[in-house]
Specification:
It contains 18 helices and 17 strands. By secondary structure, the chain is α/β, with parallel strands linked by helices.
Amino acid sequence: MHLMLGTEVIYDGASFQTSPLDKIGVVGVNGAGKTTLFNVILGNITLDSGSLTFGNAKVGFLPQEIKFENPNLTVWEYLLEARPIKKINKRLEEIYFLLSSANENETSSLLREMGNLQEQLDILDCYNAENTLLEIVADMQLDDNLLNTKLHTLSGGQKSKVAFAYVLYSNPNLLLLDEPTNHLDASTKQYVINYLKNYKGSVLVISHDAEFLDMIANKIMYIDKITHKIKIYDGNYTNFKKQLLEEKKMKELRISQQEREIKKLEDIVTRAKQASRTNHNLKRLGKDREIKLEKKKAELETRDKVYKRVKMNIEPKNKGATVPLVVDSISFHYDDKSNLYENLSFTLVGGEKFLIVGENGVGKSTLLKLISGKLKQDKGTITLNSKTDLAYYAQELEILDENKTIFENVQNEHYTDLQIRNALGNFLFFGQQAFKDVKLLSPGEKARVALCKILLQKANFLILDEPTNHLDPDTQAVIGENFGQYSGTILLVSHNPSFVEQIGITRMLILPEGKIVDYSRDLLEYYYLVNSLE
């Protein structure tokens, strides 16, 4: 198959074949075409040439960025829509009514439609469907309070769980999962792992979580951004990395040998051209070797491009306050909901790294929005010192305007256009890429834009809500290292223990209790593992 998006080649003669029941991890660098492949399968993108077929399989898709078409539905109403049983039954009632006055041709057509609809109901297991949904709800620990909650009030973690439950209940034969473990607590992640291991269908899963891929994948699909080809490797992610490394070593040996042969031929051709006209033997040899040289050059393999890692300079431009933030006796609730906090108080010390932990839905992201001024508390006060320069990284990247270009999103009056272009280059957006619309980017690319945007502010107080979501492991390690050396204050929400360790957390706020404790690895692991009671 062949595909170009604009002037960029995505696939060039790419081919692959899978087997039923395969659990395949889809990997490749950002921009290689992983999410694009899903969009081709879903029919959202048409190939320029070639084909991609998957028989009559019913496809279930869990996107990386979860958006609900009707956010005013309750969770239960939304989940029921995953199987259109109600819609089919309504149409059957209409057919029964129409049959009473239909002519012979109309009757024949209506009866055929009725048969098709009855077949669909059988496939959807309509008589046992609600019990199936209740089992999924129980296994994913979606309690009654959550089921009656409006979709638009859900936290990032709750959205992920609800959207995954929807996909499972839709009863697909082929699951497409794009970063399914983003936002999930440990217990729900383990449920997802167990479910996929026993799933009686095919799975394609894009994930930067190596441990997750090792546990569920029996094959790895590698999309090569250099060659624009696709290759499937047997085994899990760790096995794939070993095979890929060995292939790269062998390729480097081949290229080195090819280069030595080319150099040898070039030397002969050069000597032949410099030889006297009477040295006919050397002249003939030179012409023969010149033909071989051109052939060898045409056969020379291309070395893999070494992709640059994100560079960061995040030191604040202004010295921060000794006490940058005071939260005093705040309370907050959403409409028709009980209080998330009651008389919550804490104070941050300048330069400390402060972590908020708690179950999904207890208000971690909400608290960050209150402190950053995106929401207003019901009572109590939130006081930022006059010396506090605040920058806020939002979990769902709402700080970006998707209808603007990358460059427009990060523009800052304190920097020249050249300085901004250089900063974008540090985040791997080079040349004309800076003028690409944000809505066309992958989630990982959007995350890099958002990081660039807040870091250009050179703030002395960073509020970070799940900053490693969507990022590949190398980039996660880079930002963890840089945030660990940052001299300003960090207020953090993260489900990523290794990243939290890198930053150097000093204290932890436990929600909903409001208890503050000194940081400990054991306590972090405990909350990570038991974070399953919602």
